[in-house]
Structure formats: structure tokens, C-alpha cells
Amino acid sequence: MKYRLLAGVSALVTAAALSSCSSAEDGADEAGGRTAVDVWLMRDSVSAAFQKEFTAGFEATHPDIDVRIQIQEWDGIGQKITAALASNDAPDVIEAGNTQVAQFAGSGGLLDLSDRKDELNGEDWLKGLAEPGSYEGKQYGIPYYAANRVVIYRTDLFEKAGVDAKQITTRERWIDATTKLDKGGTQGIYLPGQLWYALGGFIWDEGGDFATESGGRWKGALDTPEAMRGMAFYARLQALGKGPKDSDEDDPPQAEVMAQGQVAQVISTPGGANVIMENNPALKGKLGFFPIPGKTAGTPGAVFTGGSDLVVPAAAGHPDAALTFIKELTGDAWQKKLAVAMSYVPNRTTLASAVADDPGASAMAVGAANGRATPNTPGWAAVEAENPVKDYMTAVLTGGDTAEEAAKASADITRAMNAGS
Asked: Distance between CA 198 and CA 83 in Å, rounded?
């Protein structure tokens, strides 16, 4: 999930959040010996049908626990969670975006769940969920589900150009195939100039990162040779289409662009295919998926892993019931059902086969095995708020000197990440 800047919480926001925390109270938290576990899940993270099925199944297995799920909106959720964590009346379980966990853990408002990793199969967790769910060596977030970008491609245009997607197993083969596709009015790929999540994958493939930490201080790292090689690959790929150099995938919406024109490929989550077909039903049956290729065959490209973790507030009234809830929802049976129902990547590499029959989700699962996240520190929020990475990408793609622009962007990242220290 995209990291959201958490602003200071006013008394009004705090009061609203606390009211929402306790809105389900009816004076019977422990009525009849049953414990009520209050859970905040985010809008569209589960369908109504899955929520109903899980709740019924959980309560049948655990007749001493009542599940009370409240669906929350992403807009403004940072303030709401911050207020809840600072109160004495927090829900028992909260779904948080994986890159948000460090912010909440840094406030001291979450329970340390490190000693529960073994029973929750922590050795198999996706790294892109598990790493941002930890903070200063302790595990606060339990991986819930993942989603990452893949390549969505036009099967008809590939066939017309004589390109076999199954043979695109390395980044260089991807460049060769895209060059072959980029002819006769067809864009080899529509890649906007500021899709920084994709750039992150190329940088990680080269052994670089957005920032590095030393002695408790963070330093921007876009000016390292490794990171600049990642940018160079991005520029090669971006040139094989007509994507704007000064905007991201939302301006204009790239799914709409692919639906309207002769675009052979886009980098997107698999759900983008549904939007493409909604805008152009004639493309139904003409879209395929493959993982973003890596530098060598057999190793998929690194990808930014979005998704959610489940956390337990330190102020939770029923932490034991909360852990029971989390153990069920993140366990084998319900993870497989959730992945199929929502086309998600399960939280563990050992469960990837659950989505084998879903072309988009199975391509995601391959990439998720090499998933990464942004620097795991509360300071990253300030970077995303002003996002010098986007400005850097546009500057390079419009002719700026890579080393000079990378140095500027790295300085901006350093300043933003250490502003509060």
C-alpha cells in the first residue's frame, strides 16, 4: 500500500477515532463468557462474502470469541490509527499498509509480536511484508496479503510481432522483445516517466537502494553506481513507447491508455487488466501476464511489495483473542481462500500454489518471492510526501545529467528522512 504521511492529531480527530473504536460497544464485551474482538479492516481488502464466510468459520471454531469487524477507509486512516494507538480504547486488531507499520511502531503504540513468529510460520513470510512489519529488530506487523506489479501484455500484438512472452526471462530479452514490438504505430510499452515503484525494482536488481542507514542516520543513495544503473535501464525501457516523461501511471490513467491505443505492454498490478477491459471490452481474452524479468533467467525482477500487515495495539483490551484472530486469518486455510477470492498473493512463499489457476495472481506470486519495500523507517513518509524521486526521473529522461540529478535527489532524500532527528 502507498505510504501516507501521518499528520498531528487534533482533539477533534482523536475524539472521532475513539468514538469509532467503541461504537460497537453494547456493554456486553464479555457477556456469557464470550470475548468480543474488535477488528479494523480496510475498504476492499476483503469482499463482503469472504468476510461473512471467515467470521462464521472463525466463530464456529472459537465459540468463546465474537468477531466485530469495522471497515475503514484509506483516506485519513493514518490519523485515525494514530489517535487509536494513543488512547486507552483501541481496537484489538488493525490492518495497516505494510509501509505504515514503522510509523506506528515508532510511536510505541503496538505490541511486540516477535515471540509469535514461529507459530505464525514466520520463516516463510514474504520479505516485502515481513521486513516493513518489523522495526528496530522487533516484529510488530504480521503479514496479511501482498500485491505487486507484473507486466500486462496484449497477446494479439505479441503474436503479430512474433514475440513469445514465455521467452522473456531476462531484462535484456525484455528490451529485445519490446524493441521488436515498438513498430508500425504500436508502442512497445507504455511506461510513464515517474513510475518510481518500477524504478525501485530495477535499482534493487542492481544492488542499490533509495537510501541507506549508518549510525542511526539515513542518506539518500540514488547517486550510487548501482542506483544509477537501475535508472539507466528504466530510461532504455521507457524510450520504447510514448509514455509522458513528467507524470506517473495515474496521469493519464495508464489502463485507459492501453485500452484506447496500440499499446503492447504496461507495468501494473493484475487488477489493471479489469480496468483495461472495462474501457475496451473488445480486449477481453487478449490480455496476458508475466512477472517483471530480472537480470538473469531463473530470478524474477525485484518488485515493490504492496499489501497489508495486521498489528495489535498496545492498548488492545483482548490481546490473546487478537492473536487467535490473526493466527486464523493468516493461517494456511484462510490465506488460500483469501488469495483465490481476492486475487492476492498469500503471505507466505509456501502458499504460492494457491493462485496457480489465476494467471495474474500467479505472475504476481512469482515476483513476490523477490519482493522488497521502501526504507523501513518513519522518516520515509516525508520522502514520499515531496517525492524527489519523481522529479529526478523526469530530469534524467528529459536530458539531465544522471549523476548531477541523482546527487540532487539524494540530498533531498537525506534532508527529508532526517528532518525529525
From this structure: 33
